[in-house]
């Protein structure tokens, strides 16, 4: 492999070839090749270049490339003598006869050079100039010596690169490992004028969203003659008024055409945010932001009140205006609705209307849905965030019933439950938080209201929901149990029956379930079956109402029960519910089947079926054909059953029902949950029927036919 060293740039070039035992030297373009054995040859040099005087040796060159060679010259010639065999050559022992001795070490084979990248000073009189050097060629490592303006030559730093330089001429001398040097001169210049800058007196916008900001500008730098001003948002005046909060950039140009760009931020006070929590007819405000100062906020309600929080408000819309200590205001609308809970199967709307929608570009509304995870634990969790655009009037309507319905589950009591239980899974507390979102880009505003309401699993028909008669007249006048069954019902002694009751008063703290028994001899016996304390409006309670569940046979064992009635009373024994009547059926029935079904109001009703029925098993199997080997036995069969099960269907035709009973069974026909109660256990299934006659004007008694499909049976076990 060739190895090259440069003695002087473009003067002497020496090439060694270790593999071939040769080396050569080129002086002034004349190349002479030497054997590694002892050999002396003369190479013609340029007399004018090397000549100093005729009596002295002008140059001596000492070569080190893993070998040593003596090189010397006289008046016109350069002599190179290889003193020994191989690559170990004797050095020049005495340099006293030579005017100049140069030692060169083998290197990369390229000439020493320096690349320069500079940055001039940006400000007149400044010191932000830079010089970055990139050395190439020669033999690393390199050393550096700088000569700075006004300083002694070579007295400057010894670093490669320079930063923080003022204007002036800088010289750097680079030396490589062979002692070869290379110098470079760099001139750092500065502008004729100082940069154009400006200071500003900033008046920040006082209230959030207001246009009370201002900028008063004082430019400096450049030639002092400023010809144009151009702001990033369009205006060309020097000073600005009527500004909203934001960043404003100004380009200033002087008469020489030089420009300077400066920016300022106009700030604003924090927005006043109002969160109004509505709990029944009470409103609690939480206010943050603005400048409350030492005096705090002041409050002004549209009905004249100056209180912060409100209680016992009549239904309606109220506007609250909050003012901080420097006069900034914020408004919010609080809606107090007529008290009612919501059914999850009917629309649960939130209607919103923006104030001054024409001033709000890209207007949309946000609605958050929060549901309480555990009843009365205040651990509300966000289950949805909805966003809808505003219509041409600046309004929108959210409907959240589907979201809330997914949070509810039916409450099925244990078989023949004998205590009152609160059906927590059927109802939930929730609230909605909403705000406007507008601007470029659109930014949400403050959330202004949170309404705590109750939602109940169930719903009304479209017609009755539209009329709103359930809440306005039926509920307050009838005070019903949550079932559409007729108030009079015939039941068997072992038939499970439940009534679902919702307290409809904020002042009701407890209630009692009253039962009156009528015996076959015409006498009666009244007693308090249950007392329930610590109740709240819109909770739903499951109350046992069956003969055995109430233990009616134990009240007066010597008498025979004929019927009983149940109602609810509150304070001072005032009745606060309708009365339900039960008649005990005493006739013998060979087969009774009890179906508990989820009704449209969130409770479970019981359907007793004594009509004819058939139980059908439809077997299903997955089979594989066997491979028959040579020694196949016929007793093994040809088919292997991999999987086999039966689909069990109970086909039922009910006993005749009266017209009002049959019509009420529409709830059974459309129920999403039907459970067969047999041998004190529940069996889930699906009711299927093509058509159901629930009203026939030509007949007073009609039956209902349906199929009840039970889960698939993979194994058989009798009732144990």
What does this structure look like?
This protein is mainly β. The protein folds into six domains: 3-105, no CATH class; 113-188, Sandwich (Immunoglobulin-like), CATH 2.60.40.1080; 197-266, Immunoglobulins (Immunoglobulin-like, Sandwich), CATH 2.60.40; 274-456, no CATH class; 474-606, Immunoglobulin-like (Sandwich), CATH 2.60.40; 607-709, no CATH class. 5% of the residues lie in helices and 47% in strands. The chain is built from seven helices and 51 strands. Strands 22, 23, 27, 29, 30, 33, 34 and 35 form an eight-stranded mixed beta sheet that branches. A seven-stranded antiparallel beta sheet has the order 44-43-48-49-51-46-45. A hairpin with a 3-residue loop joins strand 6 (57-64) and strand 7 (68-73). The model is unreliable at 1-109 (pLDDT under 50).
């Amino acid at each position: 492999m060739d190895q090259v060293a440069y003695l002087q740039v473009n003067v002497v070039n020496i090439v060694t070839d270790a593999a071939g035992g040769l080396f050569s030297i080129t002086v002034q373009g004349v190349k002479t090749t030497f054997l590694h054995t002892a050999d002396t040859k003369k190479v013609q040099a340029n007399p004018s270049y090397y000549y100093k005087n005729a009596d002295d040796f002008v140059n001596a060159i000492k070569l080190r490339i893993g070998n040593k060679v003596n090189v010397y010259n006289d008046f016109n010639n350069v002599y190179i003598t290889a003193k020994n065999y191989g690559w170990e050559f004797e050095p020049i022992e005495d340099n006293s006869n030579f005017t100049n001795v140069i030692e060169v070490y083998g290197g990369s084979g390229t000439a020493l050079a320096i690349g320069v990248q500079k940055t001039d000073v940006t400000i007149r009189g400044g010191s932000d100039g830079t010089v970055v050097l990139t050395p190439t060629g020669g033999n690393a490592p390199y050393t550096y010596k700088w000569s700075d303006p006004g300083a002694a030559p070579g007295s400057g730093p010894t670093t490669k690169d320079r930063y923080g330089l003022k204007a002036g001429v800088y010289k750097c001398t680079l030396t490589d490992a062979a002692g070869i040097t290379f110098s470079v001169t760099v001139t750092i210049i500065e502008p004729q004028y100082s940069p154009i800058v400006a200071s500003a007196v900033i008046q920040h916008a006082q209230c959030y969203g207001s246009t009370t900001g201002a900028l008063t500008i004082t430019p400096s730098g450049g030639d002092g003659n400023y010809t144009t001003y151009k702001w990033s948002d369009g205006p060309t005046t020097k000073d600005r008024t009527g500004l909203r909060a934001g960043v404003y950039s100004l380009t200033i140009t002087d008469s020489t055409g030089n420009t300077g760009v400066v920016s300022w931020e106009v700030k604003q006070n924090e927005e006043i945010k109002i969160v109004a929590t509505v709990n029944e007819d009470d409103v609690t405000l939480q206010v943050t932001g603005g400048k409350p100062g030492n005096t705090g906020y002041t409050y002004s309600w549209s009905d004249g009140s100056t209180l912060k929080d409100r209680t016992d408000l009549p239904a309606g819309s109220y506007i609250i205006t909050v003012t901080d200590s420097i006069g900034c205001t914020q408004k919010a609308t609080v809606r107090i609705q007529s008290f009612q809970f919501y059914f999850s199967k009917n629309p649960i709307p939130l209607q919103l209307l923006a104030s001054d929608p024409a001033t709000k570009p890209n207007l949309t509304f946000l609605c958050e849905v929060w549901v309480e995870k555990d009843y009365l634990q205040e651990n509300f969790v966000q289950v949805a965030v909805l966003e809808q655009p505003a219509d041409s009037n600046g309004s929108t309507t959210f409907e959240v019933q589907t979201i809330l319905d997914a949070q509810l589950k039916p409450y099925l009591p244990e078989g023949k439950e004998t205590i009152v239980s609160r059906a927590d899974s059927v109802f939930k507390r929730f609230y909605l938080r909403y705000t406007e979102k507008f601007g470029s880009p659109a930014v949400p505003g403050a959330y202004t209201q949170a309404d705590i309401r109750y939602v109940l699993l169930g719903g009304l028909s479209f017609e009755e929901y539209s009329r709103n008669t359930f809440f306005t007249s039926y509920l307050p006048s009838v005070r019903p149990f949550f079932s559409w069954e007729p108030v009079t019902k015939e039941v068997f002694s072992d038939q499970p029956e439940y009534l679902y009751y919702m307290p409809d008063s904020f002042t009701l703290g407890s209630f009692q379930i009253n039962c009156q028994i009528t015996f076959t001899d015409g006498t009666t016996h009244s007693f308090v079956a249950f007392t329930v304390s610590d109740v709240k409006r819109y909770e739903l309670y499951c109350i046992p109402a069956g003969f055995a569940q109430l233990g009616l046979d134990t009240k007066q064992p010597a008498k025979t029960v004929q019927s009983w009635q149940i109602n609810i009373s509150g304070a001072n024994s005032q009745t606060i519910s309708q009365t339900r009547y039960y008649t005990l059926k005493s006739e013998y029935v060979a087969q009774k089947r009890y179906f508990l079904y989820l009704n449209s109001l969130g409770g479970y009703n019981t359907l007793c079926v004594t009509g004819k029925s058939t139980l059908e098993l439809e077997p299903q199997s997955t089979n594989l054909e066997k491979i028959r080997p040579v020694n196949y036995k016929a007793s093994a069969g040809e088919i292997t059953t991999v999987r086999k099960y039966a689909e069990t269907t109970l086909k039922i035709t009910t006993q005749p029902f009266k017209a009002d009973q049959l019509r009420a069974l529409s709830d059974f026909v459309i129920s999403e949950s039907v459970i067969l109660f047999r041998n004190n256990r529940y069996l889930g299934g699906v009711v299927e029927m093509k058509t159901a006659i629930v009203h026939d004007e030509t007949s007073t008694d009609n039956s209902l036919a349906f199929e009840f499909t039970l889960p698939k049976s993979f194994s058989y076990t009798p009732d144990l």
